[in-house]
Write a structure and sequence with these properties.
Largest sheet: none
Number of helices: 10
Radius of gyration: 18 Å
Helix content: 40-55%
Number of strands: 0
CATH architecture of the largest domain: Orthogonal Bundle
CATH class of the largest domain: Mainly Alpha
């Protein structure tokens, strides 16, 4: 999976992913694109910002809690527009490609409703920058393996996971932990008998 270089798309996609599955997220994003983009063109986020919030809500309805997400998307876009480095340019986060990562992360986390996980998704998936998104699956697997402190806040979990990750392996680690959490290390009844990591897992058999 190569970085795609579209940080604003990744930011909005991550907002749409909240409290839903990947399929519904993707359908909502596709409908947003159909409503606010010309054929074969990227989404016109200026148009999304200027539209009645009800239009945005209708477009992303398949993603669930569309009333909350539509308002959040417009609040994020308004914040980006209000802090634009060049007011004459379209809404963009492309400056992050060459900016210090700490600066980019702090900027993203200052946006309405954006936390470390969303910021990490934008930085990692857009530009391959060294950050590891820690969602519920990654947190669960990492904690059961003894890599993360049980009950730690997500800010700490992100810092811990990043410190444990060999440079350049952030994307691979995130994807593998996410996949393992979805396919094997379930929240209630993990399939320890089928787990490739069972031999080294201190939590084996504790949740069956």
């Amino acid at each position: 999976m190569a970085p795609h270089g579209r940080p604003l798309d990744e930011l909005i996609l991550t907002v749409l992913s909240q409290s839903t599955n990947d399929r519904n997220r993707d359908v909502a994003f596709l409908r947003l694109r159909e409503r606010f983009a010309s054929p074969a063109q990227p989404i016109d986020y200026e148009a999304v910002l200027a539209a009645p919030v009800s239009d945005v809500e209708e477009a992303i309805r398949p993603g669930g809690i569309s009333k909350v997400k539509s308002a959040r998307i417009q609040a994020i876009l308004a914040s980006i527009a209000g802090t634009a480095r060049d007011p004459d340019e379209p809404l963009s986060l492309e400056w992050m490609r060459d900016a210090p990562m700490q600066e980019s992360r702090a900027y993203l986390c200052a946006l309405p409703g954006v936390g470390r996980k969303t910021a990490a998704c934008v930085l990692l998936f857009s530009y391959g920058l060294p950050d590891v998104p820690v969602d519920t699956h990654v947190s669960r697997v990492g904690t059961r393996l003894g890599l993360l402190r049980p009950g730690a806040p997500f800010e700490e979990l992100h810092d811990q996971m990043l410190s444990l990750t060999p440079p350049g392996q952030e994307l691979e680690l995130h994807v593998n932990l996410l996949r393992h959490g979805r396919r094997t290390c379930f929240a209630r009844k993990p399939a320890c008998e089928d787990c490739a990591l069972a031999r080294m897992c201190p939590s084996r058999g504790l949740f069956s």
